[in-house]
Amino acid sequence: MAHKQHTDALAAAMAETARLVEAQLDALLPVPETAEAKLIEAMRYGVLNGGKRLRAFLVMEVASLFAVNKTCAARVAAAVEMLHAYSLVHDDLPAMDDDDLRRGQPSCHKKYDEATAILAGDALQTRAFEVLAEPDTHDDAEARCELVLALAAASGMRGMVGGQMIDMESEGKQLTGAEITRLQALKTGRLIQFAAEAGAILGRASSAQRHFIAAYGRELGGAFQIYDDVLDEIADAATLGKTAGKDLAQGKATMVSILGLERAKAQAELMAEQAAGHLESFGEKADLLKALARFTVSRKS
C-alpha cells in the first residue's frame, strides 16, 4: 500500500473506531431519571465531546491483531477513554491547569460548575474500572484482573497522576531533557502504552508479542507528547481546540524549550519510526498501527 492509501485507510479506520466506541460510551453511561442525573450528564459531556480517540483506536487495532471480539475490545477502549476524559476534566480545573477550553468547547467546570466537574471526573474514573471488571469485557477473569491492574498502574501515583504532580511542581523550574522525558512518560505515555497493551491482554498474546506491543506503545507515547509540545508552539487555538502557547506562558519546560523546534520535531519523528519498527514481526496486519505512528508526528491538532 502506498503512503497516501495508508493515510486514507487510517483516517477511515479511526473514524469507524470513534463511532463504535462512542456508541459503547453512550450505552455504558445511560442518564437515569433519578436525582444524580446531572452527574451522568456531566460525565457524558466530559467523554462524548469528540477528540481523536487515539487511545481507543490503539486498543481496538492491537486487539484486532489477535482476532479479539470487537464488542469486547470496544468496551475496553471505552474504559480507557473514560479514564482519559476524567484526567482532562480534572486537569482543566482552576486548581490545576485552569483552562476554560477543551476540544473547542467550554471545559466541564465551565459548562456545569467546579464541584460537578470534580465529581464527574471521580465517577468517570471508577466507571472505567467497573467496565474492565465486568464479565462482558472478557470471559477469562484473569484477563479482566490483568486489565484492571495494568490500568491502575498506568494511571496512578507511578503513572499519569504522578506525572501531573511532577508537572505542577516543575512550573518555573529548569528541567533537564531526562526529567522532561520522565514527566511526559508518566503523565501521558503510560496511558498510551496501556491502551496498546490492553489489546494484547485481551488477545492473550504471548510474552514476546506483549513485549513488542509495549515497546511500540512506549515509543508512540513519547513521540505523541513531544509533538504535542511542537504543536503548542506552532498551532493556533482554533486548530488545536484548546488554548495555544500555554506551556510557554506558564514557564513550563518542554522538549521544544530544551532542544528547539526543529530538533524536537526530529526527535518525535525518530521515536515514531522506532515505534513502527517494533511491529515488524506482525507483518501487514500492523500496517494501520505503523501509519498511526506516522500520523502522530504529522497531525494538526
Automatic annotation (TrEMBL):
GO MF annotations, alphabetized: (2E,6E)-farnesyl diphosphate synthase activity; dimethylallyltranstransferase activity; metal ion binding
InterPro entries membership: Isoprenoid_synthase_dom_sf (IPR008949), Polyprenyl_synt (IPR000092), Polyprenyl_synt_CS (IPR033749), Prenyl_diphosphate_synthase (IPR053378)
Cofactor: Mg(2+)
PROSITE patterns: POLYPRENYL_SYNTHASE_1, POLYPRENYL_SYNTHASE_2
Keyword annotations: Isoprene biosynthesis, Magnesium, Metal-binding, Transferase
UniProt cross-references to PANTHER family, sorted A to Z: FARNESYL DIPHOSPHATE SYNTHASE (PTHR43281:SF1)
Family: Belongs to the FPP/GGPP synthase family.
Full protein name: Farnesyl diphosphate synthase
Organism placement in taxonomy: Bacteria, Pseudomonadati, Pseudomonadota, Alphaproteobacteria, Acetobacterales
